[in-house]
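Hi R.,

Quick one: here's the Phosphoesterase sequence you asked about.
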Amino acid sequence: MNILLLADTHVPRRARALPGQVWAAVERADVVFHAGDWVDEALLDAFEQRPQQLVGVYGNNDGPALRARLPESAAVALDGVRFAMIHETGPAKGREQRCEALFPDADVLVFGHSHIPWDTTTPGGLRLLNPGSPTDRRRQPACTFMTLTVDNGTVRGVQLVEVHR
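And here's the predicted structure, written out as tokens:
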């Protein structure tokens, strides 16, 4: 199962539209996770028109219309891997302990907000993944998203993908 992780798209504030490279990754994915800060309902509509499974949450920059359509956090099991997702996890210091306490039943936690890619595993085995932003690199060298594969209860091949403009 091919999975795409996105967050912090900020369309149309940070970019008029998602780059073609991102839409191509959406088309290749079996499941798309979006960890919030969509900003515009039209982007959510565009994702919902595609056949891939979409798992989305709202972020701090998402207004009432998006909050009415998306949850604050989500949980889904895919091929034996338990995923959770939320937009914000708080400061980097203490993140692993906070997330383990908040999501004790998850194997993988997808999050966003910082626009800073993150891939760590907590002492208790929770994998924390932040794909960065495909439209707003902030202080990062490039805009990014993540891909991974789930196969028979195992996460494989987590890859941070640089968005070419």
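The two ends are 27 Å apart (CA to CA).

Cheers,
M.
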